[in-house]
Design the sequence.
């Protein structure tokens, strides 16, 4: 069973507009949730993570994500998109913290910010 | 901080040869390193988990004799693709997880290695 899902393969947004990249998870307990960004032919860069505490997590480059336990979601958001934000975004989860502690990645969402 | 390097960044080799890829954590010690494979426009697939000083744990379907992993120190892990074939062509990415501190569950990724087998 898939632990994390990114329902949108592609998201397009105009520069200056708010952006949202969706992520839902399907694990029991209290998962650790992550967002990473990948630029072409590059590795992944860590953006932010939720472990515990405040549901709104702020990360790098002005991104933030809100952990919603009732909706089992962890959507990535930014108030004002930049063209340079165009990249491939991955949501990831550690289903059972403290055990194997391995990341399971979503399928990725290609974000394109149009000038 | 938390920088991970990979070498080489790209490599082209002939079918049947072996290729070694290095993954280094530059400013932290990594008790655990991970190797992933990524096909174009697809997500990362975990190949194996390596812990310093012990044998790697391979994911189901990954041939351990073909993808040799060595994690000889707290800052270096190597992946050797033995007897490479064209179907092994892919983007290989490593990650490293710090051994202590509050960010123990954050993996930091290398820039990746593009392998092309002719």
Sequence:
């Amino acid at each position: 069973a898939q632990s994390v899902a990114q329902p949108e393969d592609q998201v397009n947004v105009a520069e200056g507009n708010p952006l949202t990249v969706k992520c839902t998870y399907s694990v029991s307990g209290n998962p650790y949730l992550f967002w990473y960004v990948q630029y072409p032919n590059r590795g992944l860069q860590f953006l932010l993570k939720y472990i515990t505490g405040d549901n709104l997590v702020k990360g790098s480059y002005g991104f933030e994500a809100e952990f919603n336990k009732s909706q089992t979601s962890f959507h990535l958001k930014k108030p004002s998109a930049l063209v340079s934000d165009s990249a491939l975004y991955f949501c990831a989860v550690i289903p059972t913290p403290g055990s194997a502690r391995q990341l399971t990645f979503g399928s990725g969402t290609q974000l394109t910010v149009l000038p | 901080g938390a920088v991970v390097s990979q070498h080489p960044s790209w490599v082209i080799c002939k079918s049947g040869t072996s290729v070694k890829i290095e993954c280094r954590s530059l400013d932290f010690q990594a008790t655990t390193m991970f190797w992933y494979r990524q096909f174009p426009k697809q997500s990362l697939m975990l190949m194996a988990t390596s812990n310093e000083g012990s044998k790697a744990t391979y994911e189901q379907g990954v041939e351990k004799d073909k993808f040799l992993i060595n994690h000889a120190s707290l800052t270096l892990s190597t992946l050797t693709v033995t007897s490479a074939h064209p179907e092994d062509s892919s983007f290989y990415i490593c990650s490293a997880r710090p051994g202590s501190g509050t960010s123990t569950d954050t993996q930091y990724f290398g820039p990746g290695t593009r392998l092309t087998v002719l």
In short: The interface with chain B takes residues 32, 34, 36, 41-46, 49, 51, 90, 94, 97, 100-103, 105-108, 110 of chain A (CB under 8 Å). Chain A has no helices and twelve strands. The radius of gyration of chain A is 14 Å.
